[in-house]
Specification:
With about 220 residues, the protein is mostly helical. Helix content is about 50%, strand content about 10%. A three-stranded antiparallel sheet has the order 2-1-3.
Length: about 220
Amino acid sequence: MPPFTLPQLPYGKDALSPHISAETLEFHYGKHHQAYVDNLNKLIAGTKYENKDLADIVKNTSGALFNNAAQNWNHTFYWKSMSAEKNQSPKGPLAQAIDQNFGSYAEFEKQFAAAAVGLFGSGWAWLVLLKNKKLKIVTTADAKTPIGTASGTPLFTMDVWEHAYYIDYRNARAKYVEGFWKVLNWNFAGENFDQSMAVKRPTAWKQPLKKSSKRFRK
Ligand code: ZN
C-alpha cells in the first residue's frame, strides 16, 4: 500500500451545497486532491521521505516534492476548515481575540475577504495565530503554507485556487468567498486556537527549589 492515501472527507459530498456543490467536491477532492496524493507517492518512492510524516516532508523539501506534499497538507486542512453545520460564528476566546485584533468580527471578515479576493493567481488565505499570540490574515501563493515557514499556527484556511470555485461560480472568486463564510467550521478554528494558546512557555522559575538543589547553595 502506498504511504499516503486520500483522507476521508469529514462530510458527504453534497453537505456544503449550495455554497460548494457536490460536483465541485467530486473534482476538487476526488480528482485534484487525489492527484496530489498520487504524485506525492510517486515522488517519495524509494527516497528517504518514504516513511516520514507529511508535515516533515513539507518542512524539509522544495520543488515538485514540496508542492505535492504541501498541497496534500493544505487540502486536508481545508476540508476540515468547512462543516455541514452551516452559519457558524466564532465563539469564546477566539471570538474575543478576533475583536481585539481586528476591532470587530465584521471588520475581520472584510479584511479576510479582501485578502482572499486580492491574491493574484492561485493560493490560499489563512487565519494564523502568530508566535506572539496575535492573529494575522496571511495569504500564500501556489502550494506555500504557514506550516512550512513556522510563522505561526494556522486556524483555518480558504483555498482560492480556481479549481475550488470554477464549477459553481465560474471566475467570480468574490462570490465563492461569500459562500465560504456560510460553511466555515468555526468550531475547528476555535479548537486550533485553544490548543495553541494552551502551549505554555517553560515556567521553571516558578517551581519551588527541589531539596536536592540545596547542595548547590553556599
Ligand atoms: Zn484546491
